[in-house]
Write a structure and sequence with these properties.
With 644 residues, the protein is α/β, with parallel strands linked by helices. The chain contains 21 helices and 18 strands. Helix 16 links the parallel strand 15 and strand 16. Helix 5 crosses helix 6, helix 9 packs antiparallel against helix 10 and helix 20 packs antiparallel against helix 21. The longest helix has 40 residues. The two termini are 50 Å apart. Keywords: ATP-binding, Coiled coil, Nucleotide-binding, Repeat.
């Protein structure tokens, strides 16, 4: 379907990438990965025909339809949501005419055995199948299903698009592309503006689709669920792995080890050649050998190692003061805009040191509650910020709030204080802004680079309460991993608003679900939450019909008594019980480990020829103890699972 041959792109003295060659076949779903700035978005633009390469070619089968969703789009329309989406079918009459013309040409031709006739048959078959696919269902039903899957509510279908945010308008563009049933789908960061439920819907859609897919995404779970091939842009070259993303990471680690060994051997060889040249440069009897070594040195092609892996990318939040026991307490908090109620009767308590997630469909109030906590907007009800709480806030548009006329270095220099100012260069280097990159103007940075810079600003603040609103948008995999590692080590309190399941997994211990004007608490991690929704036979959160809240006392009572509303004493008692259960599991696990080691030692003695009665008796006793210990450990784990 698609072949790329020896593609080369240059924006300066050094090519962005060169020699890129690959083939995409029907139904293949490939992930295009690499560090920020490696050229992923540029490559998609070239394939889509929006940019021209310096060298090489992109060959696409005749009359194939390409659907391209760029990372950033310039949108200007004055229609409603459903009217704009209907534009996906505006070329339908062209397709009908084309199929009709192909059919007429086939009826006129008599060279049935010629290659051109067979090509014509294949084209007619392909276009007829597309036409049948588009016409097979009612367009209204297709539009409704697609828009609903991407998070729109039915009452929003007739809303003017110029009232929507850029993220929601991007969803409309994605819906239009999906409804066209393209042969090849190019998606550049499609999950950046989608919530968890919409991402899962998109995953199912792509897995069932017959089109080929090339996707750029920093959502590891999305890539694992959708793709079966991984193409990496690194050091200006492409490496193709015919495996899923997780398997690619393992193979890549092995390949990097080989690269490192080859690099070290090459450095030894270069050092040896240079040493020979220096020792015998001025000896006439060695002139021929010296010249030979110089030519040999010139022919050596340096082995490159990916810059990301060479970066000492480690984050550590600065020391901060201890906050009160309850950094945030909400009592019957509500927020409305005119007659529209975003949420009401929100009751939650976040304890010091807890890491929690805010999830739910876009527009259900996650960022609104965050703004209430930050005192950026007014609200009804009581919202208390605990004693000695110092908040560090990363907003969705934090990267766009940077001064575009400042350099990277100046941006950080203006917020750094004390001794940390002496380490600015080191910090920037850790975030891949080393060398000349620190002197770049903010306005020339990519979205990912701006996000990293905004994150550095946050990290320099000594805070004990972090609120992160979509912090992983535009961050590459490595940077997300390091940020997650730093948050796990952070001893303060964290609220994360995110749709990135992989990032939230293992990080948060509680999930607050926003929907239908209410906020519901779920104990456990993000996958516990998703599993629970499935157990309740709710395939996706976007299918939940939350009852809108009114003044009915019974309904208000149900909201107040929603899951997880507990008094301080109940929460403290529950925490003690859970910690005690965790301690018991650890003790039982240590006992099992010790008995396994003891049993292994006895088995080694028996294997070496020691066959006394005492050792066999001891072997039986240890086996019995191990069996009992395993049962006790399993019971302890089961009890802990019930508590959680």
């Amino acid at each position: 379907m698609l072949s790329v041959e020896n593609l080369k792109i240059e924006f300066g003295a050094k090519p962005l990438f060169a020699g890129v060659t690959f083939v995409i076949n029907r139904k293949e779903r490939a992930a295009l990965v690499g560090k920020n700035g490696a050229g992923k978005s540029t490559l998609l633009k070239v394939i889509a025909g929006e940019s021209a390469p310096n060298e090489g070619s992109v060959n696409i089968q005749r009359d194939l339809v390409i659907g391209y969703l760029p990372q950033v789009m310039k949108l200007s329309d004055e229609t409603t949501v459903v009217e704009e989406t209907k534009k996906a079918f505006r070329d339908l009459h062209k397709l009908k005419s084309k199929v009709r013309e192909l059919n007429e040409e086939l009826s006129r031709r008599t060279d049935y055995d010629s290659p051109s006739y067979m090509d014509l048959v294949e084209l007619f078959t392909s276009e007829s199948e597309r036409l049948q696919l588009i016409e097979s269902e009612n367009h209204e039903a297709q539009i409704e299903r697609t828009l609903t899957g991407l998070g729109f509510k039915q009452e929003e279908f007739n809303r003017p698009t110029n009232e929507l945010s850029g993220g929601w308008r991007m969803r409309i563009e994605l819906a239009k592309i999906l409804l066209q049933h393209p042969d090849i789908l190019l998606l550049d960061e499609p999950t950046n503006h989608l919530d968890i439920e919409s991402i899962r819907w998109l995953e199912d859609f792509l897995k069932k689709s017959n089109c080929a897919v090339i996707v750029v995404s920093h959502d590891r779970a999305f890539l694992n669920n959708v793709t079966n091939r991984t193409m990496e842009l690194s050091c200006g070259q492409m490496t193709d792995y015919k495996v899923s993303y997780d398997e690619f990471m393992k193979l890549r680690a092995e390949r990097r080890e080989q690269q490192l060994r080859a690099y070290e051997n090459q450095q030894k060889e270069i050092a040896s050649i240079k040493d020979f040249i220096e020792r015998f440069r001025y000896k006439p009897t060695k002139a021929i050998q010296v010249q030979s070594r110089i030519k040999q040195l010139e022919k050596i092609v340096p082995i490159e190692i990916d810059e990301i892996d060479n970066s000492a990318l480690h984050l550590k939040f600065p020391p901060c003061t201890r906050s009160g026991d309850y950094p945030v307490i909400c009592e019957d908090v509500a927020k409305s805009y005119g007659s529209h109620s975003v949420f009401k009767n929100v009751n939650l308590v976040i304890e010091r040191g807890q890491k929690v997630a805010f999830v739910g469909r876009n527009g259900e109030g996650k960022s609104t509650l965050v703004k209430c906590i930050m005192e950026e907007i007014e609200h009804d009800g009581i919202l208390k910020i605990g004693h000695n709480v110092e908040i560090g806030y990363y907003a969705q548009n934090q990267a766009q709030l940077l001064d575009e006329n400042q350099t990277v270095f100046d941006t950080i220099d203006h917020v750094a204080t004390g001794e940390i100012r002496l380490k600015i260069r080191d910090i920037l280097g850790a975030f891949m802004f080393g060398g000349e990159a620190s002197d770049k103007k903010v306005k020339v940075l990519s979205g990912g680079e701006r996000s990293r810079l905004a994150m550095i600003k946050l990290l320099l603040q000594p805070v004990n309460f972090l609120i992160l609103d979509e912090p992983t948008n535009h961050l590459d995999m490595r940077t997300k991993d390091v940020l997650k590692e730093a948050l796990l080590a952070f001893d303060g309190t964290v609220i994360v608003v995110s749709h990135d399941r992989d990032f939230l997994n293992g990080l948060v211990e509680k999930v607050y679900e926003f929907g239908g004007g209410a906020v519901r608490e779920h104990i456990g991690g993000i996958y516990d939450f998703l599993k629970k929704k499935d157990i309740e036979k709710l395939d996706e959160l976007h299918t939940i019909n939350y009852n809108p809240l009114d003044n009915n006392e019974q309904q208000k009572k149900e909201v107040v008594q929603s899951e997880g509303r507990q008094s301080y004493e109940q929460q403290k008692e529950r925490t003690k019980i859970v910690r005690k259960a965790e301690k018991l599991v650890k003790e039982k696990e240590d006992t099992v480990t010790a008995l396994e080691c003891e049993l292994e030692s006895i088995q080694s003695q028996i294997a070496s020829g020691e066959t006394s009665d005492d050792i066999f008796i001891l072997h039986a006793e240890i086996e019995k103890k191990l069996e009992n210990a395993m049962n006790e450990w399993e019971n302890a784990v089961e009890e802990l699972d019930k508590l959680k």
